[in-house]
User: What shape does this take?
Amino acid sequence: MPHRHITSAVGLSLALLTFGFAPRALAQHTDHPAPRDTTRKAMPDSAHSSMQHAMAPGPLGISMDRLGSGTTWIPDAAPLPSRHFMAGGWDLMLHGFLFLQYIDQGGSRGDDQFGSINWAMLMASHDLAGGKLTLRFMPSLDPATVGRCGYPLLLQTGETCHGLPLVDRQHPHDFWMELGAQYERELSNNTALLLYAAPAGEPALGSVAFMHRPSAMDDLMAPLGHHWNDATHISFGVLTAGIFTRKLRVEGSWFNGREPDESRWNFDRIKLDSYSGRITLNPNSNWSFTAGYGFLKSPEILHPDESLRRFVGSALHGTQFRSEGQWATSFVLGANRGDHGWSTALLAESELIIDPRNTFFGRVERVENNGHDLQLAGFTEDDVFNVSALSFGYIREIVRARSTSLGFGVRGNVGFVPDDLEAAYGSPTPAGFAVFLRLRPSLPPRGAAGGHSMPMTTR
Assistant: This one.
């Protein structure tokens, strides 16, 4: 790996470790905390004062741990690992993942690579005008650590490199994955208003982006259906408005429908030329259901005259597993309609954290892809192929500090292609693997009652 790539990876590692080893008197962490009651209850003033040193709930008493990517919700019972801080009246939350990996994708269209897949998110919340303002910043060093053309991933399609379609590779994230502001304010005891604006952000369309889904957070590689579901999680120009209750959220967005260009370090031209709407239902702490529909104007750089209509539906489930674990599962359907009709992508994935040391994850998916996207000689956009993939992985935590955990993982994947593609891939079941180190916030101990301990501090 070139020296500048190593420097970038080390830089993000040090940033995560700096937060990870912050003094106990300053930092509070909630990696996989127990589900919180999302209804308001009266409490003594002393108890309320202590609670201010954890992440304060949002309007209607909804836990901030319910927030996924953009304005999405995840199940309360399966929150993301994070660190919480108080600074000058602001609630700060940090979470993120850093992988150092070797990927080997076999067959005649495979490749191998050393690199680092990484991202971090910082959220800062403060009361404002009777509501809550949340500022969001999410960077990634992928453009340096996996390169302009991303990392090898058999059967993956989407975006470009050096002016050509990317195929059998996953594109890198832009450095500016998200930079935005969200404002929520109660309109009554049962309803609240949502406003979201971002020069780089996520419209109300897809399900929770794969890096933020509890069922996929420890899997370093993107789903094959990324461009049928959550590829709009980096859109350069987003305005969203919505109304929500404690269980239901209805949103609409006006946004830039074009995928990011190959200049991964800057902001693309901000445009508002596409629209979407989404409904999210969290009926209880274990489930989150979404359905979204949108019009994307000229999403692909190589096909500027073609627009898409996209439908996405998802069901996310999360629950506590035994005394110190968590089990999260997702089912996602994405469908695109372009000039050549509909194509769909189906996904089912699950992650089981058995205990603070052992994590298993897996994914099965099927995508309808065409000959042009797969760059197959002799085939066109009218030639559609059903391709499938199965992956499975395991992570063993090898170093666990008070608030940071380093794990060693392995991941295997196998694709299933129709007879017409065997010659191109050299096999009906092209396969690959990855070995990696994963750095993220660690799992805190459980309290006596079975929940995660939440130590409080006083100013």
Notes: Confidence is low (pLDDT under 50) at residues 5-10, 16-53, 446-459. The chain has four helices and 20 strands. Residues 296 and 312 are 13 Å apart (CA to CA). The chain has one domain: 3-441.
